[in-house]
C-alpha cells in the first residue's frame, strides 16, 4: 500500500494525516491542477455534486449512494470547506482521491475556496485548532488558487438507461404530456428521482417540443428550417459553422460552474482566457462565476450577497444557445429538496450537503448523467451552430445599465470585449438543445458522531 493509499484510508476513517504529508499532497495536487484549463473537459457518464461544506459523514453517505471512486466518475462543484466541523478531512480526502485517480474526479472552485471567506466561516479556525498553526490552511489556500472555474460535460445521453431500481411506496409517475406510453419506456422519461435505498421516488416524462417556437427561446428542435441537421464541432468554442460540421446527438454539452453567469462572459472561450491563479476578486468575471444566482427576473439584477449578480431566464437561454449548451449545472444555493430546475430545465441547482449546518433539515442530491455512446461525446456541437443553416438568430438588444464592457462602471478596460451575457434576444426564435436525461439521487444526513464537535462561535448571517 502506497503512502497515498494509506492517507486515503486514514482520511476515510475521519483521521487527519501529518502536516508534512499535507504539504506534499498539496504540492502534488498543484502540479496536477496547473495542467487543467479554466474549463475542464469531462466525458459522460458523470455524477455531479454540489456543496459539501465540511460535512464529512454526509460526504461518506454521498459515496455510499452514488458509488465510490474510482468506480464512479465524480464532478464536485466547489464549496468543500467552511460551516461543517470536518472541512479538513473532507477537502483532504477529495484532494487525495484527485491525486490518486485524476481522471475519475474533477474539482472546481467555489466561492468558499478563498482566503477571505475561510477566515470568517470556519476553515481557518479549524486548521489552527487541529494542527496548531496556520500552515495547513496556507497549503490548502494555494491549492484553491489552482482549482478550475468550471467544467464542460460532453456526450451526455438525452434518454435515461433502465435501472434495476424498484418503485418506492411513494412512487409518483408524472405525465406532463398525457402520453399513454408506459412508465417503463425510458425513451420517454426526462427525469428520474431515486432515494438512498435505490428506490424510484418519481419519474417525469419528456415534454414534446415543436421544431421552432416563435414565442420562446427554449422551445426548439434539432434541425434547421430547411430540415438539415445542426452543425457539430467543439461545444463552447468560437468555431465557425461555415464548414458545416457533422451531425451530432440531440443534446448539447452541460456547463458546470459553482455560482452562475457573468455580464462580462458571453462565451465559454472567455472563461478559458481568465487568469484564475489568484485569490477570488471582489468583482469581475471570475467573481461572478463563483457568486451569481439565477432568479425570476428579466436580464441582470444586483445580488443581495454583495458579490456577483442575479440573472434571469432570458440570460440563461441566450447563453446556452450561443454556446450550444443543453443545461447549466450549478450549486451555491441551499435547496431544501436537494435539487431545483429552473427556466424550462435550462439550469439546475444541485445541493449535496444534507441538514445544512446541522440544523436546516434539508435533503441533498447528486445528479447522474449517462453517456450517449457516440464516441464518448467527440461529435460535439459548436458555439455557432445553426448560423449557416437558416435558423432564426437573436438580434442583440442592450439592457438598461449595460454598456459594451458590461455593467456601467464595470468591465471598462478589462479586456473582456463585449459583455454578451448582458444582451437579450430581440427575436426569440432560438433553437434549443434537448436536455440530457437526468437521474437524481436524493439522500438524507448520515448519523453524526457528536463527540469532539467543538462549539462553533456565531458568525454573521449571509446568503453564501
UniProtKB/TrEMBL annotation:
Keywords noted in UniProt: Hydrolase, Manganese, Metal-binding
Family: Belongs to the PPP phosphatase family.
Low complexity: compositionally biased ranges: 225-244
A GO term, aspect molecular function: metal ion binding
Pfam families: Metallophos
UniProt-annotated stretches for the region Disordered: 210-244, 403-422
Highest taxon of the lineage: Eukaryota
Enzyme Commission number(s): 3.1.3.16
Protein name: Serine/threonine-protein phosphatase
Source organism (scientific name): Lineolata rhizophorae
Reactions this protein catalyses: O-phospho-L-threonyl-[protein] + H2O = L-threonyl-[protein] + phosphate
Amino acid at each position: 500500500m502506497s503512502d497515498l493509499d494509506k492517507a486515503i484510508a486514514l482520511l476515510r476513517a475521519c483521521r487527519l494525516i501529518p502536516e508534512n504529508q499535507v504539504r506534499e499532497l498539496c504540492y502534488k495536487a498543484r502540479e496536477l491542477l496547473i495542467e487543467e484549463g479554466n474549463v475542464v473537459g469531462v466525458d459522460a457518464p458523470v455524477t455531479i455534486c454540489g456543496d459539501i461544506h465540511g460535512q464529512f459523514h454526509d460526504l461518506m453517505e454521498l459515496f455510499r449512494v452514488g458509488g465510490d471512486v474510482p468506480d464512479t466518475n465524480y464532478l464536485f462543484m466547489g464549496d468543500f470547506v467552511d460551516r461543517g466541523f470536518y472541512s479538513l478531512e473532507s477537502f483532504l480526502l477529495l484532494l487525495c482521491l484527485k491525486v490518486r485517480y485524476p481522471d475519475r474526479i474533477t474539482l472546481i472552485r467555489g466561492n468558499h475556496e478563498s482566503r477571505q471567506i475561510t477566515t470568517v466561516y470556519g476553515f481557518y479556525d479549524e486548521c489552527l485548532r487541529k494542527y496548531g498553526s496556520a500552515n495547513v490552511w496556507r497549503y490548502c489556500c494555494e491549492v484553491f488558487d489552482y482549482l478550475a472555474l468550471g467544467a464542460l460535460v460532453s456526450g451526455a445521453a438525452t434518454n435515461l438507461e433502465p435501472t434495476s431500481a424498484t418503485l418506492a411506496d411513494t412512487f409518483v409517475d408524472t405525465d406532463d404530456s398525457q402520453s399513454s406510453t408506459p412508465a417503463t419506456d425510458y425513451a420517454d422519461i426526462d427525469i428520474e428521482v431515486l432515494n438512498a435505498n435505490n428506490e424510484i421516488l418519481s419519474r417525469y416524462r419528456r415534454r414534446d417540443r415543436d421544431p421552432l417556437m416563435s414565442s420562446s427561446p427554449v422551445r426548439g428542435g434539432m434541425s434547421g428550417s430547411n430540415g438539415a441537421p445542426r452543425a457539430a464541432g467543439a461545444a463552447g468554442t468560437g468555431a465557425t459553422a461555415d464548414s458545416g460540421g457533422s451531425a451530432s446527438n440531440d443534446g448539447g454539452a452541460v456547463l458546470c460552474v459553482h455560482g452562475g453567469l457573468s455580464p462580462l462572459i458571453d462565451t465559454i472561450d472567455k472563461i478559458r482566457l481568465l487568469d484564475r491563479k489568484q485569490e477570488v476578486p471582489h468583482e469581475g468575471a471570475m467573481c461572478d462565476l463563483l457568486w451569481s444566482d439565477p432568479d425570476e427576473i428579466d436580464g441582470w439584477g444586483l445580488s443581495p450577497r454583495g458579490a456577483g449578480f442575479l440573472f434571469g431566464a432570458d440570460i440563461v437561454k441566450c447563453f446556452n444557445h450561443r454556446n450550444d449548451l443543453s443545461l447549466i449545472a450549478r450549486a451555491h444555493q441551499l435547496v431544501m429538496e436537494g435539487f431545483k430546475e429552473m427556466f424550462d430545465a435550462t439550469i439546475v441547482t444541485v445541493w449535496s450537503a444534507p441538514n445544512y449546518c446541522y440544523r436546516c433539515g434539508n435533503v441533498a442530491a447528486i445528479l447522474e448523467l449517462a453517456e450517449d455512446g457516440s464516441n464518448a461525446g467527440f461529435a460535439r456541437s459548436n458555439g455557432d451552430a445553426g448560423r449557416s443553416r437558416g435558423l432564426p438568430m437573436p438580434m442583440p438588444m442592450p439592457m438598461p445599465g449595460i454598456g459594451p464592457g458590461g455593467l456601467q462602471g464595470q468591465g471598462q478596460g478589462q479586456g473582456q470585449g463585449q459583455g454578451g451575457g448582458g444582451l437579450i434576444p430581440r427575436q426569440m426564435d432560438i433553437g434549443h438543445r434537448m436536455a440530457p436525461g437526468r437521474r437524481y439521487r436524493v439522500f438524507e444526513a448520515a448519523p453524526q458522531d457528536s463527540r469532539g464537535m467543538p462549539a462553533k462561535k456565531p458568525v454573521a448571517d449571509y446568503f453564501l
